[in-house]
Amino acid sequence: MFGITNLELGTAFSLYGIVAMVAYFAGGPLADRFSARRLMALALLATGLGGIVLAGFPPPRTMNVLWAFWGMTTILLFWAAMIRATREWGGRSQQGRAYGLLDGGRGLLAALVASVSVAVFAALLPGEASSATPEERAAAFRGVIWVFTGITLGIAVLVWILVPDSTPGGEAGDPHDPEKLSLSGVRAACRMPAVWLQAVIVICAYAGYKATDDFALLSRDALGFDDVQASGIGTLAFWIRAAAAVAAGFLGDRLDASRVIAGGFAILIGGCLLIASGVLVPGPAWMLIATIVTASVGIYALRGVYFALLAEGAVPLAHTGSAAGVVSVLGFTPDVFMGPLMGVLLDNSPGLPGHQHVFAAVAGFGAIGLLAALAFRRVTRAE
């Protein structure tokens, strides 16, 4: 529809990633200075306005600017503010529940919006997709863009109405001055061993999350499932996300988030080692499904509660945004290295062995994450 090459599209994605990595760090002090409601509403409004630009099918240069702009709106203005708003909403006793509902809700909404978008695209085509003219496909895809744009702008209004307009700072005995935008929160977060251990935990958990992209490929390329069956198996992991994240959140409030995280890494390791061991062979679908369900439960349980560690690690509420920025800029680096790592492992060992090597590597990340979780518990209980 846009008349662009894969390289041009990839360049736009890369510009988003570059801006986002800087924005994770810089967004923390903003979240500690300004109201989360105002930052989130502004971010959603600006992101939605970018959708209006996209609906005009802009040229590659404008798309580069647009994706970089979205890196600023979705991360700089939104991410740390969302983490802070979730922590404030969870209060002192329901941090796990708050973050579990956050990640589970994100997964469920993403699945629903994707399903609605496919339905809208199909409905706007005059007949069979294969026989539609380029103009008809462009009109249908523009309708999908308007759906995403409308949802984003609508949620901006909901955030403005429903999220409390709380003023950052103001904890008793906290020298942080909410009237000034400074790096004091970042410096304070960097001095806390618990923050660095949390960053390691997020890196290892997120590496597992990135490996879920391989479930469908494993099913199709190595275990003999057709495209439809492989797509169904890949989709199964997304629906597990909502249940596992919410359950982990509620469990985290009862047992401590760090204990749930240690258990999540143990489950992740077990599921990945089953795949890496070569036990799975072409044929029995139940074995593959059971293994993917096991690994997915561990992966999404981790995602559900790893930001609940901010409270358990005694990060001052006034520095929540800064700590979330430090953890995120390090923790989401698998976005940079997991794709190439998986590609090298799969290319060097075609077929089932390559997938075994991928999940062996993920099990290794899981072991590091488990050790970091145990160290986190030891550090936070010694302070």
Task: Explain how this protein is built.
The chain contains 16 helices and no strands. The chain is 79% helix and 0% strand. 44% of the residues are buried. By secondary structure, it is mainly α. The protein has helices spanning 6-33, 36-54, 60-76, 79-90, 95-124, 134-162, 184-190, 193-211, 214-222, 227-255, 257-276, 285-305, 309-312, 320-331, 334-348, 352-382.
SSE topology:
Blueprint: H1 6-33, H2 36-54, H3 60-76, H4 79-90, H5 95-124, H6 134-162, H7 184-190, H8 193-211, H9 214-222, H10 227-255, H11 257-276, H12 285-305, H13 309-312, H14 320-331, H15 334-348, H16 352-382
So what's the oligomer here?
Answer: single chain
- Assign a percent range to the helix content: over 70%
**Would you count the extended β strands for me?**
0
- Low-confidence parts: 170-176
Helix-strand category: mainly alpha
Dominant shape: globular
SSE ordering? HHHHHHHHHHHHHHHH
State the major sheet. Answer: none
Give the terminus-to-terminus CA distance: 57 Å
The total count of helices amounts to: 16
- Average pLDDT figure: 86
Radius of gyration, in angstroms, nearest whole number: 22 Å
Strand content: under 5%
